[in-house]
Design brief:
The chain has 57 residues and is mostly helical. It has 2 helices and no strands.
Length: 57
C-alpha cells in the first residue's frame, strides 16, 4: 500500500478523535458519536492495510 493512503487513513482516525473530543468538550453527543465513528473507520482501514501488507510480502 502506498504511503499516501496510509497517511489518509491515519488522518481520518485523527480527525475522528478530534471530533469526538470536541463533542465531549461541548456536550454535543451527535458530534461525539460522529467522531467516534470516523475514528473507528480510520482504524479499521489502517488494520486492513496492515493485513494486506503482511500477506503481500
Amino acid at each position: 500500500m502506498n504511503i499516501s493512503k496510509k497517511i489518509a487513513h491515519k488522518a481520518e482516525a485523527m480527525k475522528g478523535g478530534a471530533k469526538k473530543t470536541s463533542g465531549r468538550a461541548t456536550g454535543d453527543r451527535s458530534l461525539q458519536a460522529e467522531g467516534r465513528g470516523d475514528q473507528v473507520k480510520g482504524n479499521i482501514k489502517q488494520a486492513a492495510a496492515k493485513i494486506r501488507d503482511a500477506f503481500k510480502h
